[in-house]
Specification:
single chain, mainly alpha, 10 helices, disordered N terminus
Length: about 200
């Protein structure tokens, strides 16, 4: 039975999958999560609703998979420059300011929706938050293994919090989305000093 299900899922090509995800995110920006329906996705993407449910299971899974698809770095293991500062800067180099602005607005809307939709919250946590934390920990562990950061450095546990804080405070305090330049400066001014890492090459 599992083989049959896998065969069915494999019928969607990567190109078609990307097209579907783009359409889902467009709809999400237009109407918000609560008003988004699988019927609307099916109509927008010229798909059958049965195909969408068979492939993704439901709205929460589809939306979260679409969000994962647009991440500029799918896995932090793709980045390994030999230094923590180099790794952070390489991550920021892949960020696109226009996309960050667009996706920031999207994430703010989803954050509100998660309070009323436990299924969305669960999917978002398991598919985006937890992998992001695991990726960050591996990147930081490499720095510890290289001797750049002390293994007992108390700031290690708060790097993800610091980065998330940078995103949130830009919108709240400055009324603008973060930019790659801002985040790079923030890393050098706040994150790396907290970890005891030099901010010059």
């Amino acid at each position: 039975m599992a083989e049959v299900a896998a065969a069915r899922r494999s019928r969607i090509t990567p190109e078609r999958e990307a097209e579907l995800y783009a359409a889902v995110l467009d709809l999400l920006r237009e109407v918000g999560y609560d008003a988004l329906t699988m019927d609307a996705v099916a109509a927008r993407t010229r798909s059958s609703k049965a195909t969408l449910y068979r492939q993704w299971g439901g709205k929460a899974q589809l939306v979260v998979k679409a969000l994962r698809h647009i991440k500029p770095v799918k896995n932090f293991d793709e980045i390994d420059t030999g230094s923590l500062r180099g790794d952070f800067h390489a991550l920021m180099a892949r960020a696109d300011d226009a996309e960050m602005e667009q996706n920031g607005a999207l994430m703010r809307g989803l954050a509100t929706a998660m309070h009323a939709n436990p299924d969305l919250h669960s999917e978002f946590r398991s598919q985006i938050i937890e992998p992001e934390i695991a990726d960050s920990r591996r990147l930081l562990q490499r720095a510890v293994d290289r001797g750049e950061v002390r293994a007992d450095c108390p700031a290690l546990e708060f790097v993800v919090h610091m980065m998330l804080g940078a995103f949130v405070t830009c919108a709240v305090l400055d009324d603008r989305p973060p930019t790659a330049a801002f985040l790079t400066s923030y890393i050098d001014a706040v994150v790396l000093p907290a970890l005891g890492v030099p901010t010059t090459d």
